């Protein structure tokens, strides 16, 4: 039989069970503000200054690009104007002659033309008469000048040919234009006409005194088959060069004599965002936990590199100085544990630890070798790409490091013989830095924006 106290205890137990079986922890009223504050990340002076410097660099790059583009356009226009002037000066050299010189030359030539017209009619051949002037306006007379020339056959030879033609009954006599003078040819034609053998040159006609025209057409001597047997054989005389074997030399590439290689001096600055790969070495049963690496762009993650060197034939030799920071936090685990709720409201066991923080600066000095390639074709013109390797030494720990790097971007005109290069840059360390104070190894890699100037000495 149950007592009254037992009944009260049972009811109390039932009420407590109902109360604590549906237990749920109320959320923190400030949890909403903490979440949005963590998502926003906040702002710092270093972050604001970095963003402002990047915006200023972008604006400066755009300004330099626009100025270089306008300067190149102006140069193309000036070069086109100079080319047009040069062509006009070459095409119209004769139009710049003075009228006085043309009048002085025209008078004696006209006299020579009237002297020729007063002689008996004769054919005008292109190889016996040379043109001494050019017609300037339509309708003007063309003056010709007879050039003194020594001919193979004289007047006595022509007389013998006429007598032989009369005795043998030849219809025509063939003789070359270069072998007889125009006066002798006129005499020959007149004598042949008197003998009623026809005209040896029917295509040559005289239309009037002082007006001589050239009529095209085959010569009668070329059509008369009976005359071909009596033509003297005339073979051309050439000074043939002796046969020889010519061995061609080694062919040269086109760019060897179109483009000359020059020395170039390079200087550059590269702001870098540093990332770290952390490796924990085993040691003495110590447990490390809760590692935190910086994730935001801040003074702890931003480094820089300064470069200077020379370039020739696309190969660059550089001397570099760089600096970046190593910053991370961790805990050394202890033997104490704590039970607490997690974000979902469930309880979990958390191991307590001793917080530790590491802040160190790495200063590197080294040398790098790069291959720099620039596109000169129409597609991606003036865009470049480079890759190389670097060997550096840490001045803080005295350790050596090896890097590989790559970058690309565009070359911009910055002045006479000066080119500005802008583009992203990436480098990766093949070595790991060891800290003597803790059992950690750090392997960094960096991403940044490379800005440089190259001066080419010509």
TrEMBL record:
Keywords: Membrane, Transmembrane, Transmembrane helix. The keyword Transmembrane applies. The chain crosses the membrane at residues 46-67. Residues 92-135 are annotated as: Disordered. This is Outer membrane protein beta-barrel domain-containing protein. It comes from Dyadobacter fermentans.
